[in-house]
Design goal:
Elements: H1 2-53, E1 60-70, E2 73-82, E3 85-95, E4 98-106, E5 112-120, H2 130-133, H3 168-186, H4 195-202
Antiparallel strand pairs: 1-2, 2-3, 3-4, 4-5
């Protein structure tokens, strides 16, 4: 019995020791890798901003967090102020698959310079086409349109933008993310009732 008790104590001691060593190694690993990971994330964001601003000489002059209510939901935006205009991170939570997050570049007058998809849970082959569908010379091209002057709704709702084939819900969510990004940056006082959101209100919020 004493021998069994001794063996049990030894096993517990070994397990505790192993757990301690693993925790120590994990802590050291996190400290070693946190710097490079942060640097890579910063580089990826910087490259994304250059992409949406359509320039290799973009200088980020400061970031601003903007929170604003749209249709009863408080949304958060990250505004990257640059020497070429602004790049805004914007998320619409009502895409077909859930959140659709974009980074969109605007000139100071509201012209859309470019965009990239940061997060999407859309169906491959359909909603996922948003990554390319709205680019320059693509079927739903929004590059060069103006967030103030153009009607950034899908054509089915009376707007100027061709929706992704068989993915109108995703298209509406994408355009909401774009127009709400501009509104959040400009600090509009009308809660950014864009064409897309107004159309949804008329339908009782249905998509």
């Amino acid at each position: 019995m004493e021998r069994l008790k001794s063996n049990l104590q030894n096993m517990v001691g070994v397990l505790v020791g192993v757990a301690f060593v693993c925790a120590l190694l994990l802590s050291v690993f996190n400290k070693v890798t946190s710097g490079p990971v942060a640097e890579q994330a910063a580089k990826t964001l910087q490259d994304g901003i250059k992409n949406v601003m359509q320039s290799d000489s973009v200088v980020v002059e400061g970031d601003t967090i903007v929170e604003k209510e749209f249709n009863g939901k408080m949304l958060s935006f990250v505004v990257h102020n640059t020497n070429k205009g602004v790049a805004v991170e914007s998320t619409d939570p009502n895409a077909f698959g859930g959140n659709l997050k974009v980074l969109v570049g605007f000139a100071e007058d509201g012209e859309i310079l470019g965009y990239t998809i940061l997060e999407s849970a859309e169906t491959p082959g359909l909603g996922a086409k948003a990554a390319e569908w709205f680019l320059d010379e693509a079927p739903g091209d929004i590059v060069g349109l103006n967030a103030w002057k153009n009607n950034l709704m899908v054509t089915q709702d009376g707007g100027e933008v061709n929706a992704i084939t068989a993915s109108t819900i995703t298209s509406r969510a994408f355009l909401r993310a774009i127009t709400q990004a501009w509104s959040a940056y400009r600090g509009d006082k009308d809660d950014a009732k864009t064409g897309a959101t107004e159309q949804e209100e008329k339908k009782g919020g249905k998509k």
